[in-house]
Amino acid sequence: MEEAEVKKFDLEDILKKIFIVLAVILLVISVWGVYTSLNELISIWIGYKYAPIYRTLLNLAVLILAIYVLNLLVRKK
To answer: Mind listing the pLDDT tens digit for each residue in 60-74?
Structure first.
């Protein structure tokens, strides 16, 4: 009886991990879309003289956010 319960939990854990991986993949795709759209908006709305400054600020914000998330993930383990 216990083996059946263990297998059930293993299957549930595997399915949860698969759904988490799929969610992360979709998240990465959507973040990339937002990032490229913001770069296009910067090139359209901001003057050509100031566009590199705003792109640099956007890239810096993404870098800081990535470092923060990685820091949280590393500290959890």
So the answer is: 998 898 888 888 878
